[in-house]
Amino acid sequence: MVLRSAAALLRGAKTATQRELYYMDTNLFAGGQAQCNAAILTVSALLREPRHCLGVVASSRGFYTGRLRTRHAAGGGGGGGDGGGGGDWHDPRTAGGTGASVNSDWISHALEAESDAQFLLVVEKDGAFARLSEDRFYDRLPCIIVTGQGFPPVAVRAMVRALQSALNLPAYGLVDCGPFGLSLLLTYVHGGARMGEQAAHYTADVKWLGLRPSQLDALDLPAQAYAPQSDNDQRRARTLAESIHVTARPELEAEVDYWSRGGYKVCIG
């Protein structure tokens, strides 16, 4: 069904979201949206082509703001525009505190970018992103702020990679001090395991800016800042402890060991 739908989309020069594909035959995907997404990834791996080359895109999730203007590159399908470019410039700051949404253009189109930012700030939580955006943090420290609203979809990862490459900027990850925060950060750095060889196309060098377990004692945080780990947290800590991306880096092993032994987590935003 996925192959048939992809062929129809490509013949018609159209796209469909993963959600739309799922609703084309909900009886087939008895396991829900997750089963549909897995089938799409399987087809992508089988054909050795990224998902957007099948005409399938993720629903928009993720926002960005800060010192950045973008437009479609000349000949990139944007149409019109000034100065020989591919369209009008877009500034996410005009969207107010919510920022601009990240869409699949970052995967499937060539974009031009202009910025005087000094770094990229990748934020895990909506709340932290909203506060930084509303306070116009990017005017105090010139930067571009991005959130994937939790684990980042491919479009957000593609955006971070594209901006880091085009603008030659360092990137920093502000994530929770917990197993899922580190796991999210490693998704930006190494890609999603389910994407196979395609994962490498959507990775970036994002440094861990957020709080680490090894720093907790020195900070003397109030008791209410700490939260006990859930069963899911502890399972994720055990998974991290066995990950090659952690075992290859002793400094990460030490942090993960704290959570594996049942230490607390500290959430940001």
Automatic annotation (TrEMBL):
GO cellular component, one term: nuclear chromosome
Cofactor(s) this protein cannot do without: Mg(2+)
Enzyme superclass (EC): isomerase
Gene Ontology biological process: meiotic DNA double-strand break formation; meiotic DNA double-strand break processing; reciprocal meiotic recombination
Taxonomic superkingdom: Eukaryota
EC number: 5.6.2.2
Xref: SUPFAM superfamilies: DNA topoisomerase IV, alpha subunit
Active site: 23 (o-(5'-phospho-dna)-tyrosine intermediate)
Domain Spo11/DNA topoisomerase VI subunit A N-terminal as annotated: residue spans: 2-56
UniProt GO MF annotations: ATP binding; DNA binding; DNA topoisomerase type II (double strand cut, ATP-hydrolyzing) activity; metal ion binding
Composition-biased stretches (Gly residues): 74-87
Gene3D superfamilies in UniProt: 3.40.1360.10, Winged helix-like DNA-binding domain superfamily/Winged helix DNA-binding domain
Residue ranges of domain Topoisomerase 6 subunit A/Spo11 TOPRIM in the record: 119-266
Known catalytic reactions: ATP-dependent breakage, passage and rejoining of double-stranded DNA
Region Disordered, annotated ranges: 74-95
Official protein name in the record: DNA topoisomerase (ATP-hydrolyzing)
Source organism of this protein record: Tribonema minus
